[in-house]
């Protein structure tokens, strides 16, 4: 199927694909809904305010975001003429890949097991999940607030970059 995302002329509006997956929509499955009863939930002003606030990350609370050093490493890898070989070498580190998969699964479960969708800890685990998927391909560590690190198995903590909050 094909979905076309219209982007308003207002430059302050974040395009929907960027909100969904930083614009990386290929190879993934998505649930699309036009049911007005479900969509009415998102018309609520309080929900809209929380949703808009969720797209702005206060730099003092950057949990779950790659740090600047790791962003530069990834940028160099992606801009490198050897980017494919470098990504393949990263993915051939089988023990690290297995542990990265365990970390991604743990972050996913910790995010999903929290019933409050706007809970900061749940959101940090959600960002760690997303970041972990990228780290498996490109290397780097997953950023996680230090108070959440204890919920990660000790054997996987070397894959995390703990931030003081």
Automatic annotation (TrEMBL):
A Pfam short name: RdRP
Family, as annotated: Belongs to the RdRP family.
Record's catalysed reaction(s): RNA(n) + a ribonucleoside 5'-triphosphate = RNA(n+1) + diphosphate
Organism: Proboscia inermis
This protein's UniProt keywords: Nucleotidyltransferase, RNA-binding, RNA-directed RNA polymerase, Transferase
Enzyme class: transferase
The keyword Magnesium is annotated on this UniProt entry: no
Protein name: RNA-dependent RNA polymerase
Domain of life, per lineage: Eukaryota
The keyword RNA-binding is assigned to this record: yes
Enzyme Commission numbers on file: 2.7.7.48
RDRP core domain ranges (all copies): 13-149
GO molecular function, one term: RNA binding
Coiled-coil ranges (or none): none
